[in-house]
Design a protein that fits this description.
about 90 residues, mainly beta, four-stranded antiparallel beta sheet
């Protein structure tokens, strides 16, 4: 299992932030992202090539994803920073 740890992740500007450092070359993972913050943003399972919507919290995303690089989060361009984002994943 890979976890974001004991401190929630947050963004600081428009740049993406690594939520889970996963070195994976197309392996399937059961992924959970918990957004306890009140701001929506995006997450990526391929080190920032493709972005999927992360709803404003409290909300969670759970599913099986083919991960090809670090799981990242980012805020909406020039929007409010994300805060209170947690993640964990298990290789399958």
């Amino acid at each position: 299992m890979v976890s974001s740890g004991t401190t929630a992740k947050a963004t600081d500007g428009n740049d993406a932030v690594t939520l889970l450092p996963i070195s994976s070359n197309g392996q399937e993972w059961d992924l959970t992202i918990l957004n306890e913050g009140s701001v929506a943003g995006y997450f990526s399972v391929d080190a920032g090539t493709t972005w999927l919507r992360l709803p404003a919290g409290p909300a969670s995303i759970t599913g099986r994803y083919t991960i090809t690089g670090d799981v990242q989060i980012k805020r909406i361009e020039d929007g409010t920073d994300l805060a209170g984002v947690w993640g964990w994943a298990d290789a399958k």
